[in-house]
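Case study 2.
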Amino acid sequence: MDADIARMRKGREGNALEKLAAHKRHMETILAAEHVDPDTGEVHTVERAKRAVTLVDIMHRDGLLSMELHRAAEKIRELYFAAQGSSAGVSSYGEYSQATEASQRLPASQRQLLASREYKLALEAVVGVRRKDGRVTEDEQLRELFIRAVIDDSKEVTQVAIGARSSYKNRVQQSAAGGTIIQECLQRLALHFQYRER
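Prediction:
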């Protein structure tokens, strides 16, 4: 009986360690500094911030995306967050607490408006479909999948999930199709950014 309990506890610990290892794989340190203690000479690493690793980051790390495509993904990620602006809690520091709700709202900054415009143009270049009448509409399913692949750190965002929009039924084929869809979207995005810089 004691052996069964010990085996169950060991199984639970193993699962917890596996979960922590999987979580750690999806986080990376973006700012780190080493500090040498002058008294003891010991080196301490100070981690300043962590960033969630997205599907695009994993594909780049595995060699499925070129540096140019990865930079295009980073640029649209930056535009996305710049267009969102700061949260109400962050933007309300130092405000008069007796103010009315309407006066507490800060107008969008010029930088935020420009980022929003650039973000919309970039998304149109990636998921825009030109109709016969000349107007552009967005492929909403592709937009959602693309944004999740570039920004979201969720485990549900996989190449298989993206490839499920194809006609393939096999998981391996769906995974390959999902990778191809992301590559094509990022190629359109990279071309858009190259054109905008000129």
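Residues 171-197 form the longest helix (27 residues).
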